UniProtKB/TrEMBL annotation:
InterPro entries: NinB_sf. This is NinB protein. It comes from Faecalibacterium prausnitzii.
Length: 190
């Protein structure tokens, strides 16, 4: 389903003992917004819709994201051995994502459309230039689509890689201790 097809998302809770779906109290405002959008789309006539029910996923946390980038910066600094330039944290990010089996969409499109695609995907790399001003790209949402559990596994992998590299940085030790101690960072369920 294309993102533009989504009219709204309404958080609900299914109670198996009563076999009922209940709209969360905090969702009443969202419910009224969705009704308004539906009224606008219907123009007074019946409107056919498809309702999709999905299990709510707990997205990665801002704290997890900050931890990831702090560790990737240390990794890049280690690769560069204190010299300016060289490997960037972003390059380390892509390397780690690929190691952890990040899925890519391979697309063929006009070269002029690549900037537009970058608005929809976090990672876009041109793989091959083709005839008629077309190209093949590989595109992915990156870690922004990870659940908190997936992000925890990814950060564990970054810690493992830093250990394999023999990085002896007091910040890594401090981050590791925080990572193990802070409730909710590592142990979140998806």
């Amino acid at each position: 389903m294309a993102r533009s097809d989504v009219i709204g998302k309404l958080p609900v809770v299914y109670d198996p003992t009563k076999q009922k779906i209940v709209v969360e109290n905090s969702a009443e405002f969202v419910k009224s917004q969705i009704r308004q959008k539906l009224d606008d789309l219907a123009h007074g006539s019946p409107l056919r819709l498809t309702i999709t029910v999905e299990r709510q996923r707990k997205k990665r946390s801002p704290e997890q994201n900050r931890m990831m980038w702090a560790l990737l910066t240390i990794m890049a600094d280690h690769y560069n051995a204190g010299k300016a330039g060289g490997t960037t944290p972003e390059a380390c990010y892509i390397e780690m994502l690929e190691e952890y089996g990040l899925e890519y969409d391979f697309l063929e499109l006009p070269v002029a459309a690549v900037p537009i695609l970058r608005n929809a995907y976090r990672l876009v790399h041109i793989v091959e230039l083709l005839d008629n001003d077309r190209c093949t790209v590989k595109a992915s949402m990156g870690s922004s689509s990870f659940t908190s559990a997936q992000m925890s596994a990814f950060i564990d992998g970054i810690f493992d890689r830093l250990a394999e590299m023999g990085v002896n940085d007091p910040n890594v030790t401090q981050y590791w201790q925080e990572w193990q101690e802070v409730p909710g960072w590592k142990k979140r369920k998806s």
